[in-house]
What does this fold into?
Amino acid sequence: MDAREFLGLEATHNPHRWHFQVTAGLSTGGGFLFGGCGLAAAIAALEGTTGRDLVWATAQYLSYAQPGSVVDVDVTIAVDGRNSTQARAVGHVADREIFTVNAALGHRDLDLDRSWPPPIDVPPPDECDPRPLRLPGEESIMSRLDLRLASAKAWEDLIDHPAPGGRSALWARIPDLLEPSAAALAILGDYVPFGIGQALGAFAGGNSLDNTLRVLRIVPTDWVLLDIQVDGIARGFGHGTVRQYAEDGTLMATASQSTIVRYWDPGRPGTRPQPEHSGGTDR
It folds into this structure.
């Protein structure tokens, strides 16, 4: 299965229009389209229309799409150059805009391939504990991912145990996908909200306002290491970066996000923040 099949993204007679149905398996536990899946669909549509590989894409999330909705993705090519294409994709349900994605795609022949930040030092995936679903048996995007706690706390150990320096890590893979892709990395890049809960040592996270994926190179790998750095939280918003490494240590991509920080009731995914909260209280 490739990313288009995973997302249910289909072409239309118009090479600039694509569509997919929002299912529970593409949604959060709160019952709306997972932001990473929206960006992934836009990337797959942009690559399909332009015939070029993604360099970067940035999504702005504007509204929610619930399971059962059909999202149309319209691609507009702004500039099509010799080596790169600048384009955008707009996802909408009827006349309600859900997300807007701006992107660059292409390739240049340059004999230079280097990256500098080393990955966080963690055990391999088979030596890390799995991260269970928050609610056993729930059907959501989380039930389609395999996650291992590389440098992170389990649900029962999270409260009052903040991640040192706001840094945490997960091993992640999408069992249904045969190979990594920019669209797959977009799904796995939507983990700053997870990092916020780890950084605070609390049942916290947030709703993504945006997500920017920057792709260096994609190499064969089963697992992807998500090295999550929360940079800061202020004025009710959190900001952070997810570096995505192959199992051999290759830096494949970075994803950065800003989120609306929320505290959650652990038994009710998608609930609104509680009116009063402090570290260690039940939410």
